[in-house]
Amino acid sequence: MKWNVLVLAVACAAHFAFAAETRQERGQRVVNEALKALGGDAYLHMEDRVESGRAYSFYRQQLTGLSIAKIYTRYTVPAPGNIGVREREAFGKDESSSVLFTENNAWEITYRGARPLDDLRYANFKDSTRRNILYILRQRLREPGMMFYSQGSDFYQNRPVEIVDITDSDNLTVTVYFDQLTKLPVRQVFKRRNPEYQDFDTESSLFAKYRDVGGGVMWPCTIVRERNGDKIFEMYSDSVEINRNLTDNLFTLPSSVKMLPKPK
What we know:
alpha+beta; outer membrane lipoprotein receptor (LolB), chain A; 13-stranded antiparallel β-sheet; 45% strand
């Protein structure tokens, strides 16, 4: 009962306090509050990150894979229209297999060698990265053409949220739900064209169990991704470390690696 009263009080206070704002002003304010809640300047200066835990993949709601996982991420200066991040997703205790994403290419690496990812998978990675709210807040806030448009307040999982549409200069939009109490992003949704069926897939991500991972930077230790309402990926991090001075060898292919043909 006390929790319900608190939630209603917060929702009512927010409604009256910001009634005079335009939707653009409200959207910008909510986004700025989220950046501050994530760590502000410390978040903007996060250079790299290592997430360690368990990863699960699904197909048609059925578990298809699970593994010990370690995700290495390093931010770079983004070129116009491109991503500014390198990421290596390593699996297994010995990290014997991994997927490497860079600004221009991506490979699946196993004991057999390195195989370039197919074009669609890499294009989807780039699109998902550019529309990820955690990436947007780190890399894209000052990008020309970014617009923030409030869709008002609502409830998500019994908590009051602020909903903001974020649209870039290419007219690509992601709708983000921000917790009114913590100010942190808890959900995002966007649509992407399915080239096979010529319709649209609805991609959503859920962020939960935020922790201070160093210097006041907050990061979600539970991330769940869904497509058209079906769960496709879960990551549960046991530890998250930032600013580990990750070296280039993590994000480049060894010169001795065998190059395999690209899948057709």
